[in-house]
Amino acid sequence: MRRIPLLIVSALSIAFTLIAAPVGAHAEIVSYATGAHNTKDQPDVLKVFFKGDTDIKSVKAVLMPDRNTDKPVIEVTDFTVSRNGIDSVASATVRPGFMDIFQVSIEAYDTKDNKLDVATGWGSTGYRFDWVIWPAIELAADPAAPDRDHRTVTLSGRVTGLWPTTGETTPLPARQLTILLMQGESSSPRVTATTGEDGRFSTTIQPDRRNLRVMATTNWDAVNEPDLALAFSDTVNVNVRPTRTRMSATVDKTRVPAAATVTVTGTLERQTGDVWESMAGQKVLVDAYDSDGDRVPDKANGEATTDATGRFSATVQARYTHEIEVLYKAPDIFYENSSAKTSRLTVPRETKISSFSTSLNQYAELSVKGKIDVVGDTWGVRSGTPILIEYSGNGRTGWRLIKTLKTSGFGDFSGTFWAPAAAGYYRARYVETNDYYASVSPVKYARRYETRVAGLNASPEPVRKGRPVTVTGTLQHRNSSTSSWTGFRGQKVSVIFRFYGKKTWYLMASTTTDSRGRFTRRINAPGSGTWTIAYYGDKYHFSTSPNGDYVSAR
User: Fold this and answer.
1) Using CA atoms, how far apart are residues 403 and 496, in angstroms rounded to an integer?
2) Are 357 and 369 in contact (CB under 8 A)?
3) Which N-terminal residues, if any, form the signal peptide (predicted)?
């Protein structure tokens, strides 16, 4: 016989072991109970459910009455066990001598005498045995869509019960039902009804909400019905069909001052089929808004009651510009609210121009600024509102427009432009519009004294290039009292020069006027060109510069 090496034998043994090993093998799980209960289809069979790998050896169930606490507990041990994979079911027939819902406690062992755990909470289906009548509830609502002419809803139905002792289904007389009127709240209103000999019940409600979800339940209070299981009917919807209403409204004036009274008239109607009918004796709220434009139905500006033809009339005080709304607030859920608005009622607002000021500089530029506000309104007039700047020689009459400015977003306005005169009066004026009354600013006076250069002369003419040119003249200003011209002493003047054919002026020298306003300055001629004087003004005087004197240089 041929010998097989030990190494080959060992390899074959390992291979056989791998081939023979069960696919998907796992560590053994000791079985444990996951729940115990009976069903409506098999009310007298208690089933205990297990999961795990070990076989069930024995099961004991103790049934404790929940409602009849003075009754004895029931022990059950004669279970038959069936298994399918890791799922095992122990079944036993139980027929207690009284009706109740029993709490079940389980004690079980496997074939290895392990006492099995009993799962509770998550992963458990619970442990109870319901040896009670199993009700079925039918529920209907008539009408399911109540309206103003059919406000009462009849809730009716029938209750039957499956008896665990006989398996028969019979009407359940003299049973109390709780009917829940659910409206979305956590605690729903409810009514009760009691079944008759045929198991039927009926009760009425008048909905106080447009949409109700109605459900009937037996044994809402288990103490009162200890032999009856908790059961619910299907939900029935009760949806009120409110009557449509409509309104019209007009106002007798379209523009009034604040606090004036206006009369609002209109009609209130309801729809019946395709016909609109007058609604008499109904309360109507007029102008139910506050000064900020927020609706406040409980504090309306006025009220009225419709007459036999559905018409109403109310006098209210004009408070601000808006469309006056009339509001019908339906007294119950069987009518819809409605409203209407009048045409726009304008209540012009007072305006005020403040902080108006003027400033006239030495170059005859007038700068103005100010602000226009709406009295009692934080926001003021709209951006771009025109403000007229007007001038008068005496500040009383003869006002004429010299500039139109536009406001910014907060009512501010400003601008700079040429002054129409050396002295005068200015004001800002807002012209009345449909929404705002006119306003005029305080009058402001602005002036500067005129100046001029008299007798300007540059000599000799012609002159040799590089040789001196003498510039002379007199600076004068207008006398404030006599309007005559007088010499302006002690003022600095600048001698400036522009080459022939050029545009640029050059500062050549400066000098100061004497007591008569005269000035003299000798300067070497840089070439042919024009000589003149520039006086730049001061706080009270305009600047001035005459046309100049041309000197040819050779």
Assistant:
1) 35
2) yes
3) 1-27
Residue from 396, 405, 450 nearest 425 by CA: 396
SS3 141: strand
- Using CA atoms, how far apart are residues 237 and 16, in angstroms rounded to an integer? 71
Alpha-carbon torsion, ordered 120, 121, 126, 128, to 10 deg: 70
Q: State phi, psi for 16 to the nearest 5 degrees.
A: -60, -40
| Model confidence pTM above 0.85 | no
* Residue where the block lists tokens 């007199």: 474
- What is the DSSP annotation of 164-203? TTT--EEE--S-EEEEEEESSSSS--EEEEE--TTSEEEE
SS3 helix, strand, coil % of the chain, rounded to 5?
5, 55, 45
Residues β-bridged to residue 58? 109
Q: How far apart are CA 102 and CA 118, in angstroms?
A: 17
DSSP state at residue 55: P
Tallying the residues shown for the chain, one arrives at 554
Q: What does the alpha-carbon distance between residue 103 and residue 273 come to, in Å, rounded to a whole number?
A: 59
- The position carrying tokens 């009926």 is 202
Give the pLDDT confidence score for residue 290 in this predicted structure.
59
Residue 363 amino acid letter: Y
31 contacts 116 by C-beta, under 8 angstroms: yes
Residue 542 and residue 448 in contact, taking contact as beta carbons nearer than 8 Å: yes
CA-CA distance, 297 to 96, in Å (whole number)?
65
Cβ(429)–Cβ(449) under 8 Å? no
Q: Are strands 80-84 and 492-499 parallel, antiparallel or unpaired?
A: unpaired
Q: Where are the beta strands (DSSP E) in 252-337?
A: 261-272, 275-278, 283-286, 302-305, 311-317, 322-328
Task: Give me the sign of the Cα torsion angle 44, 45, 48, 49.
Answer: negative
Residue 427: CA count within 13 A, CB half-sphere: 19
How far is it, in rounded angstroms, from Cα 372 to Cα 349?
Answer: 12
CB 372 within 8 A of CB 380: yes
**CA 84-85-91 angle, 5° bins:** 35
Confidence tier at 398 by pLDDT (50, 70, 90): very high
Round to whole Å and give the CA distance between 424 and 415: 17
Residue labelled with tokens 């799980």: 29
For residues 400 and 414, the answer to whether their CB atoms sit within 8 Å is no
Rounded to whole angstroms, the Cα distance separating 98 from 67 reads: 11
Distance, in Å, from the CA atom of 48 to the CA atom of 50, rounded to the nearest integer, reads: 7
pLDDT band at residue 378, thresholds of 50, 70 and 90? confident
% of the chain exceeding 70 in pLDDT: 91
